[in-house]
Amino acid sequence: MKKNDIFMIHGSDYREMTKSLLHAADLAGMIGNRKAVISLKPNLAVAKSPSSGATTHAELLEGTIEYLKEQGFSRIRIMEGSWVGDSTERAFRAAGYDRISELHQIPLIDLQKDRFQEYDAAGMKIKLCDTAVSSDFVINMPVLKGHCQTTITCALKNNKGVIPNSEKRRFHTLGLHKPIAHLNTIARNDFILVDNICGDLDFEEGGNPVPMDRILGFTDPVLCDAFVCDTMGFSLDEVPYIRMAEKLGVGSSDLSQAEIHMLNQPSEPDFSPKPSRRVEALAQYICPENACSACYGSLIHALNRLDEAGLLKKQLKASPIAIGQGCRNRSGFIGVGRCTGKFCRSLKGCPPKASEILEFLKKNWLND
Ligand code: SF4
Mind listing the pLDDT tens digit for each residue in 170-202? Predict the structure, then answer.
């Protein structure tokens, strides 16, 4: 897999999707040595169920473990240190990892209790947990979601879980962005498997999940986080740590050079959970007909950007935005996605990204 590759798979069987994506990316070939110590690093900042939009789905870990075992790897462990106000052990249970650990005989390592040492991270001293340092290969497994302080959180910020609690507190006093960028010069990102199933609209603790039913694979954490900005309708300028990490040589944010491998087409969800009130309020501007989760979720993120800018309320009387496979071969005023190609105003893409939807709505829907 090349540094500029992005693998993407849609669906609702998250365990099988994980295995398919890892096969396509040839993760086993990347790791090489069957005796390598492999650490899975999910996002369990808080003790909450993944359906809340806060934490990594257990199916991604289970699919990864099954894939690795089938490929002859056995030295696998799950490591995480929840944020200062929560217990990692409680978080392991809330996300269902205790069951996986028992079933597959994989240790759960609480990094809040781990030993650590200080390292030079491109000119900044940063303490790192010993378990993370002693890993031969780390699979970073973040949730693609919003964050109240850093706007988004994904690969780069997820590594805050491999530092001790005292260091987490210090990162906050330093404003997060600079230390997160420096941390990623010493924390490993050998492969990044992103949970884009139902990450939260704008809060790391969850509560407003946006179903997108998608899993993504990267080897470059900077490219990953730049892609997340596009997926949620933010510019790179709104998330300073991404360019800071790029300047330190961690990776490239140049999405124009990215090669996207879509392993299947987006699809309609088998089951739609009841939306939160916030998501429901955004959905009142949409007229969906058999919409795929990835398309619908991108539109929700774009509408949230307009809402944050105070541009949405006055649109209550505007034409609703059509979306979904049910719009194929029919006409209408405004629609998002290739399926609405016959509408007077339509944005191409299957699915389009929130950043593209945002620009389209600003030009074609606001002040309508
Ligand atoms: S454009 Fe149509 S087929 Fe493509 S993701 Fe959107 S709703 Fe699904």
Answer: 999 999 999 999 999 999 999 999 999 999 998
Q: Is the CB of 242 under 6 A from ligand 1?
A: no
Total Cβ atoms within 10 A of residue 363: 11
80 Cβ contact partners less than 8 Å away, ≥ 6 residues apart: 41, 42, 43, 44, 88, 91, 92, 109, 110, 111, 161
CB 86: neighbour CB atoms within 10 A?
A: 18
User: Atom 4 (ligand 1): residue with closest C-alpha?
Assistant: 350
For 59-95, write each residue's pLDDT tens digit. Answer: 999 999 999 999 999 999 999 998 888 899 999 999 9
Ligand 1 contact via 260 beta carbon (within 6 Å): no
Average pLDDT over all residues of the chain: 95
Query: With 80 as the cut, is the pLDDT of residue 271 above it?
Result: no
Cβ(338) to ligand 1 under 6 A? yes
What are the residues facing 6 on neighbouring strands?
Answer: 260
How is residue 30 written in tokens? 């990347």
Residues 6 or more apart whose CB falls under 8 angstroms from that of 143 comprise 43, 50, 53, 54, 55, 56, 153, 154, 194, 195, 199, 200
pLDDT tens string 15-38: 999 999 999 999 999 999 999 999
In a 10 Å sphere around its CB, with 0-12 CB exposed, 13-18 middle and 19+ buried, how is residue 267 labelled?
middle
Sheet of 321-323: strand order equals 286-288, 321-323, 334-336, 345-347
41 neighbors 141 (Cβ within 8 angstroms): yes
The structure tokens 């994989």 sit at 106
Given a cut of 90, is residue 121 above it in pLDDT? yes
Going by C-alpha positions, the residue among 268, 259, 261 that lies closest to residue 339 is 268
Give distance in angstroms: CA of 336 to centre of ligand 1.
9
Residue whose CA lies nearest to ligand 1 atom number 7: 324
> What band does 268 get if pLDDT is binned at 50, 70 and 90?
confident
Q: Does ligand 1 have an atom closer than 6 angstroms to the CB of 93? A: no
Domains of the chain with bracketed CATH: 5-262 (3.40.50.11440), 277-364 (no CATH)
Sign of CA pseudo-dihedral 151, 234, 211, 11: negative
